[in-house]
Amino acid sequence: MSVSSSNRRSMAIPKPIRVTAKVLEATSQKMAAKFAMKLFITPMKFPIPKREEKMNAESRQEFVKVPAINKTIRAYHYGDSDKKVLLVHGWSGRGTQLQSIAEKLVKKDYSTISFDAPGHGKAPGKTSDMTEFIAAILELEKQYGPFTYAVGHSLGGMSVLNAIKQGLKVDKAVIIGSGDIIEDIMNNFIKELGMNIGTGKLMMKLFEKKFGETINSYSAYIAAQAVTVPVLVIHDEDDTDVPVTAAHHIHKHLANSQLMITQGLGHRKILGDSTVIKTLTQFLLS
């Protein structure tokens, strides 16, 4: 399932799209639900910011086919160590988004593998969802693993937990600003579109029909119940994209976890914070 609203609050939905949504809803609720569903699985692409240029320039990059979803991702290999860490970006992110974390791990004699998910960064396509993030993770493990650790941000955090549930082998994991309950995320997305609850429920039914599973099957707290490796859950209490309650709820359902709550870092600044990176590194390497 896509969890595209993880970035929506800081990227306000343009007024023309919200107007279109309301017009469609007044005309046909089914059409409106299909429109919302298409928006929900369509990420936004952004130029690589200067802070990520080093990793972009120095990493070895290649396109990798993911047979399970018949799509292609862009992989980034950073560092030369045989001890590998998988990094997973969030919705509308890219493989270089966790550069500060990658730099620290490389200095500690690890290498990192990250990727642009389908429809993200340099990867082809226009749409994606969490099942494709998970498929990409498992394919990378198959081709380049094993990974010693995994670190995921936002939707990437949810994907890491679900990938572990589906067989990804790592010694430890870190999730940062992870979303949690998919139904809540979808409801929030519908609210931001200005649509009513009925349209949201219809959109959820369309997703369930497409995937053949209940809407909350991929919720982070459910995946967490199947995860036994140590997990560090990091979240900022001022995150306006994903509420900090998500971290507490996920932490509650993990068998072996630590919780780090920060202040004033929001949803993205947290990825470059020195204290966060130090704690993350100590957790993984201890």
Q: What's the helix-strand series?
A: HHHEEEHEHEHEHHHEHEH
Which regions contain 5 or more consecutive residues with pLDDT less than 50? 1-10
Q: Main beta sheet, described?
A: 8 strands, mixed
Count of DSSP strands? 8
Structure commentary:
The chain has helices at residues 15-27, 29-40, 53-58, 99-107, 130-144, 155-165, 182-193, 197-211, 220-224, 245-253, 274-285, and strands spanning 60-66, 71-78, 84-88, 111-116, 149-153, 172-176, 231-236, 257-262. The chain has two domains: 1-42 and 182-215, no CATH class; 48-180 and 218-285, Rossmann fold (3-Layer(aba) Sandwich), CATH 3.40.50.1820. Helix 1 runs antiparallel to helix 2. It is an alpha/beta fold and 286 residues long. InterPro entries: AB_hydrolase, AB_hydrolase_1, AB_hydrolase_fold, Pept_S33_TAP-like_C.
How are the secondary structure elements laid out?
Layout: H1 15-27, H2 29-40, H3 53-58, E1 60-66, E2 71-78, E3 84-88, H4 99-107, E4 111-116, H5 130-144, E5 149-153, H6 155-165, E6 172-176, H7 182-193, H8 197-211, H9 220-224, E7 231-236, H10 245-253, E8 257-262, H11 274-285
Parallel strand pairs: 3-4, 3-5, 5-6, 6-7, 7-8
Antiparallel strand pairs: 1-2, 2-4
Helix pairs in contact: 1-2, 2-8, 5-6, 7-8
